């Protein structure tokens, strides 16, 4: 299997836009039915060996889980009592997927209440009315799943080098990226004027790293990193490799390494890890984060062991 297969933005845009909305519908169920965690860690999807999972949620008498099986291209709802129901992903519009999912949930005795409109997407058509987004190409979704899985393993390797407070490697359904976040240990003092999502996400100072599949503004997939709140002069810090760049983004800066630049190198994984480390070192330097004290080579902090 090719490491980091090609994923041109334009080639799968219609399928991406449709599946992104599928993901938001299921993600909003997760948001409504899960116990809130710091920095919204309860909300994103986690990866399985076959796709994406909400993880178990709901009360003790109706605990359930929703999985995207991207090998069989089915949505699967499992209850703790052993009952299960499925919905095909191919051939669905956003409206039919929305109606089908809530029909399944009702049949299993689950009454989930969500705000059934897209979050932060350019076309805010309510899910139940969206018949325009109806593209689901199983081959392209399969490639998305391969890329996502391979990137997740690279982020796990990156995460292993830090022993401070860190998030899981998780897939955000609202922004359609996969990320892992390191915390410097300092409270950031979020502005009361910021929206509640932002205040919770950035209540502590963070250096975050991840990968996203592109958008209308930047129509190419890329690895990224940012520091929030952004320290002065961050965009002047050096990045590795030479193809990496600082780009302005919503009043701050993103460290960017395009996916195609990484995948064409002799060692794509090493290239990405070098990039992520250089961006982390830039943020750690300017925030005063003690990178040496928080390092854990190969995930080892046991003082009696030597990292391999």
Task: Give a nutshell description of this structure.
The chain is α+β, with helices and mostly antiparallel strands.
Describe the protein.
The two termini are 27 Å apart. Helices cover 29% and strands 21% of the residues. The protein folds into 2 domains: 10-129; 138-287, no CATH class. It has helices spanning 13-33, 94-107, 138-159, 196-201, 259-263, 268-287, and strands at residues 46-47, 51-53, 64-69, 74-79, 84-88, 170-172, 177-187, 204-212, 222-228, 245-249, 252-258. It is an alpha+beta fold. 34% of the residues are buried. Helix 1 (13-33) runs parallel beside helix 2 (94-107) and helix 3 (138-159) packs across helix 6 (268-287).
What is the share of helical residues? 25-40%
Number of domains: 2
SSE sequence, one letter per element: HEEEEEHHEEHEEEEHH
Major β-sheet strand ordering:
6-7-8-9-11-10
How far apart, in Å, are the first and last alpha carbons?
27 Å
Low-confidence stretches: none
SS class: alpha+beta
Q: Profile the largest sheet.
A: 6 strands, antiparallel
How would you sum up the global shape? globular
Q: Number of DSSP helices? A: 6
Radius of gyration: 20 Å
Secondary structure tally: strands: 11
Mean pLDDT reading: 95
Strand content: 15-25%
Protein name: Ava_C0101 and related proteins
InterPro entries: DUF5996
